[in-house]
Amino acid sequence: MQLGDFQQLIRGMYHEKDVARGIDGTFMWLMEEVGELAAALREGTLEEQRGEFADVLAWLTTIANVAGVDLTEAIQEKYGSGCPGCGRMACDCDDAEKP
Amino acid sequence: MQLGDFQQLIRGMYHEKDVARGIDGTFMWLMEEVGELAAALREGTLEEQRGEFADVLAWLTTIANVAGVDLTEAIQEKYGSGCPGCGRMACDCDDAEKP
C-alpha cells in the first residue's frame, strides 16, 4: 500500500472529527495508543501487536492530516537518501548517538 | 512510496543496531521523538513538524521490524475495509468514542 493512499484513506475516514477535535485532543488519542502498543509489546500476542502498530500509525497519520503534513514527502526528505545522521544507506553512526 | 519499501529501507539502515538495542531501548528513542513532535506541533515551523513526523514514523517502523510486524499487513487488516469502530469508510462512531 502506498503511504499516500493510507493517508488519504485516514483523511476520508476521520478528517472532519480530527479537525473538530484539534491537534491537542487528537494527540491525546495518539498517546493512549502508544501506551497500548507498549503493553502489547511487553505481553501481547503478535496479532495484538499488529493491531496496536496499525492504531499508532493511524493516529500519527490523522495528526499529520490536521497539521497539513504529507508523510510521504516527510520521509523521502529525511530518510530517502540515507540516514540523517551519517548519510549512509546502512547507518554507521556511533552507537551512543542517534539513531 | 510504498509503506513496505519504507519498512525495508529502515530495516537496511538500522536493523542490526535495533536488534542489538532491543525493543525496550528502541522504544525509548521513539518516545523521545514523540516528545519532539509534540514540541514541533506546539511551536515549530511546518518544516520542523515534517522532520519530526518522519522521525516518529521511522522509529515506529524500526520497532515493527524488531517485533516482526509487517506494517502494511497491519494497516490493511485493521483499516483497509473501514473504521474498526463502525466499519464505515467515513467514520460515524459517536464523538465520545474512539476514534
TrEMBL record, chains A, B:
Superkingdom, taxonomy of origin: Bacteria
What keywords is this UniProt entry annotated with? Answer: Hydrolase
Residue ranges annotated for the NTP pyrophosphohydrolase MazG-like domain, each copy included: 27-77
Q: Name one GO molecular function term.
A: hydrolase activity
Q: Which InterPro entries match?
A: MazG-like_dom
UniProt cross-references to CDD domains, sorted A to Z: NTP-PPase_SsMazG
Indicate what this protein is called per its UniProt record: MazG nucleotide pyrophosphohydrolase domain protein
